[in-house]
Task: inverse folding
């Protein structure tokens, strides 16, 4: 009986790893079909182990009648579900003239010509770029999927909206994270 339990547990672990691998492949293919910015793929992959921990907590709770481990299993599954929901619902879809920021049920569309400027914070491993759009702001991180293609499309659309030639803008330097004119900090 003990060995049967080990076999079932090993089968569940390998089955879950198989499903995570298939899900990651689907997410990668889905991101290639339409131009969009998505959160880094490491977020859903990082929580792939939480269902395994929840399974272990659940088995221990069931075997020992421990409500604390049952609550921990529910918490682990809730965190995993929330992270996957955030990953799937947060994106920026764009075309050559406008982009739509989507977060859950909230969707807001902006034209590239509405961009007033940018603010940049650079650390050792990543860059945080804030697009200033009047009273709104859109925050982008360099580790997001589709970061550079979006900013190139945004720069081209912004130049078109401003009546400028993109090739003549000598201040434009993607290597230095300079896509738009600098925007000073807003004080409230």
Result:
């Amino acid at each position: 009986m003990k060995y049967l339990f080990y076999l079932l547990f090993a089968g569940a672990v390998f089955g879950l790893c198989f499903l995570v691998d298939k899900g990651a492949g689907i997410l990668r293919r889905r991101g290639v079909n339409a131009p969009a910015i998505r959160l880094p793929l490491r977020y859903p992959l990082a929580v792939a182990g939480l269902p395994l921990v929840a399974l272990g907590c659940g088995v221990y709770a069931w075997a020992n009648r421990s409500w604390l481990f049952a609550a921990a299993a529910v918490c682990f599954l809730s965190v995993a579900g929330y992270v996957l929901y955030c990953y799937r619902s947060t994106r920026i879809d764009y075309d050559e003239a406008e982009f739509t920021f989507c977060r859950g049920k909230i969707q807001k569309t902006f034209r590239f010509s509405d961009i007033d400027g940018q603010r940049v914070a650079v650390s050792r491993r990543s860059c945080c770029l804030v697009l200033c759009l009047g009273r709104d702001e859109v925050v982008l991180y360099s580790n997001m999927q589709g970061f550079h293609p979006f900013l190139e499309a945004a720069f081209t659309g912004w130049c078109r909206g401003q009546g400028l030639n993109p090739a003549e803008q000598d201040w434009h330097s993607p290597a230095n994270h300079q896509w738009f004119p600098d925007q000073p900090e807003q004080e409230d």
